[in-house]
Amino acid sequence: xxxxxxxxxxxxxxxxxxxxxxxxxxxxxxxxxxxxxxxxxxxxxxxxxxxxxxxxxxxxxxxxxxxxxxxxxxxxxxxxxxxxxxxxxxxxxxxxxxxxxxxxxxxxxxxxxxxxxxxxxxxxxxxxxxxxxxxxxxxxxxxxxxxxxxxxxxxxxxxxxxxxxxxxxxxxxxxxxxxxxxxxxxxxxxxxxxxxxxxxxxxxxxxxxxxxxxxxxxxxxxxxxxxxxxxxxxxxxxxxxxxxxxxxxxxxxxxxxxx
Length: 259
Ligand code: NAD
What we know:
Elements (H helix, E strand, L loop, with lengths): L7 E5 L7 H11 L3 E6 L2 H12 L7 E3 L5 H14 L6 E4 L18 H28 L3 E7 L11 H21 L4 E8 L13 H11 L8 H12 L10 E4 L9
Parallel strand pairs: 1-2, 1-4, 2-3, 4-5, 5-6, 6-7
Helix pairs in contact: 1-7, 3-4, 4-5
Bound molecules: nicotinamide-adenine-dinucleotide.
């Protein structure tokens, strides 16, 4: 018996096997959930479909650029069909900023770069929840998890515009939790420690961040995708039924340190 037998989940944000979203998918599948994946575009389709084929049964995959309304509507239509009009869980593991906005001075951030990063990294939690709402209402409630980072509340050099996006994302978590709690929907964030992924590689000086965490975190190391995946699983599961609007740190304890 799995913890999530008979439950349905949509995971948005798998790019490859290193993606945090893939570790969340593995944890959900392990616990018996039926999982559907979305991939951003044709460039990622092959890789995501190959990963989906590794599961037994293979996971259904749908294309969805989260910034395109028609894509979101179409994808949630297909997911509704796949899961009989109901959805229990949503994982939002999506972020993007231009490389030039993840280095140097924040004062150089262009309006265009700022808007793009905010739209992809914060607003899409709202638009995806809008897509999920009817399906979660039909299921009698739901649980949503997004991925954040400490750079949203403290200064992490070079994280720059993405830090501002994560601040907006964490605030969106609280407003969405308030707005959808009446439908028995919970919304939480996991604030993950740094992990080498495709997205992280775009951040200037990322290796220094990994070294700093390993040197200073109480556990004396970095976290793994699996650890983050398991924490997301907890928040998505009935074990977290009394928790909403929260940010849970999965960072080997780094965030508690003052020095
Ligand atoms: P990743 O590159 O594997 O995942 C990022 C995903 O965002 C990709 O699948 C990409 O396709 C998707 N994406 C970007 N723009 C999109 C769009 N317009 N529509 C749909 N999808 C889009 O990297 P990751 O590190 O697994 O990132 C997942 C989340 O975890 C992000 O929110 C990231 O900020 C967060 N996070 C990462 C770390 C880290 O160190 N890796 C730490 C804390 C939080």
